[in-house]
Amino acid sequence: MRDTGEYLFTSESVSEGHPDKVADRLSDTVLDAFLAADPYSRVACETLVTTNRVVLAGETRGPESVTPELLTHLARMAIRDIGYEQAGFHWQNAEVTVLLHSQSSDIAQGVDSAGNKDEGAGDQGIMFGYACRETAGLMPAPLYYAHEILRTMRDRRLAGDPSIVGLLPDAKSQVTLRYIDGRPVGATSIVVSTQHEEQLEQVDIKRMLWSLVEDTLPKGWMPPEGEFYVNPTGKFVIGGPDGDCGLTGRKIIVDTYGGASPHGGGAFSGKDPTKVDRSAAYACRYLAKNVVAADLADKCTLQISYAIGVSHPLSVYVDLHGTGKDVDEVKLEATLRDAMNLTPRGIREHLHLNRPIYVPTSAYGHFGREPDEAKGTFTWEKTDLVPVLKAALGR
């Protein structure tokens, strides 16, 4: 995004009940089941959900205790947790098909360590990380507030809040903010589409959500009432996988930075941490966030690239968008390489990724979340590298 002038920028989010997010949740449920049984399991699970049908497909390498029957049960429990007890998609009645097979030996030989060979990357590709000062979590503001609107709806719905009775799990939000010289100053439009029970009128839903969104945004940021769009197409009763097919990995911009940063194209959910699509994207966010947290810049984009079967990254690129504070970007690139081992093994060990920590990432973004020391989640959001970076750069 530009750092001068006045402009509008928009990001969207989708709830955990959105069909694609249901698919992400189930893929990460499979992953966590394998990692709980063996932290070095290999998993690449894709999920399809549609009307009362779930298909889990992909490749795995892990203990025999993770059976199709166990995965079917865990999938049903995840669907129940999201809140689907509808005729067209019900946790008890949906048909669950497990089509997971053994990991390709051709892929395994490139990834596995052997002799003097360290673990290689699970695939070629480019990964990006981003951080900026627009929010306390160093995330872009439009995406942050789009997530917050839906997260607040989810929390109140699960708590049985009478102010939103009748709203259902499938929902989307879109937030457009006005920027002046790179700083967000208010919302010019908000879109919220939410599944609801048949008896609710659109005017009632808009009234419910107006106060919820107003409470979520900073004071004075609400757009004019005419720019607050709720279910713009009319009623939204048929939703979730009954209303639209869902697939793993179709919400990668929602998962990352809302379009404020480039994206390498690789999805995250259902992939174990030998897959650099996921683990290296987490490392990129970790490094970019620590650069900004160390006050080396107000904005940082970082790119890393890998080749399949090769341990060390082929490139590390840093762009401070002209906001660097007496920092040479080439020197910073070398400093970041020294500060963190960017091999797949190094990333996994540094961020403690070989644990069943992935279900919480499957909705409301993989970044900008609070690390939980007890659960071991979102370790890539820590800023513990700040002293290292400052010392290396003489700050």
Structural write-up:
47% of the residues are buried. This protein has helices at residues 19-37, 68-82, 105-111, 141-158, 202-216, 240-243, 252-255, 276-293, 329-339, 344-351, 386-392; strands at 6-14, 42-50, 53-61, 85-86, 89-90, 95-102, 125-132, 167-180, 183-196, 228-230, 246-247, 299-306, 315-319. It is flat. The protein contains 11 helices and 13 strands. The longest helix has 19 residues, at 19-37. With 395 residues, it is an alpha+beta fold. The mean pLDDT is 94. The strands form 4 sheets. Strands 1-8-9-10 form a 4-stranded mixed beta sheet. Strands 6-3-2-11 form a 4-stranded mixed beta sheet. Strand 9 (183-196), helix 5 (202-216) and strand 10 (228-230) form a beta-alpha-beta unit. It is 32% helix and 24% strand.
Annotate the secondary structure layout.
Blueprint: E1 6-14, H1 19-37, E2 42-50, E3 53-61, H2 68-82, E4 85-86, E5 89-90, E6 95-102, H3 105-111, E7 125-132, H4 141-158, E8 167-180, E9 183-196, H5 202-216, E10 228-230, H6 240-243, E11 246-247, H7 252-255, H8 276-293, E12 299-306, E13 315-319, H9 329-339, H10 344-351, H11 386-392
Parallel strand pairs: 3-6, 9-10
Antiparallel strand pairs: 1-8, 2-3, 2-11, 4-5, 7-12, 8-9, 12-13
Helix pairs in contact: 1-2, 8-10
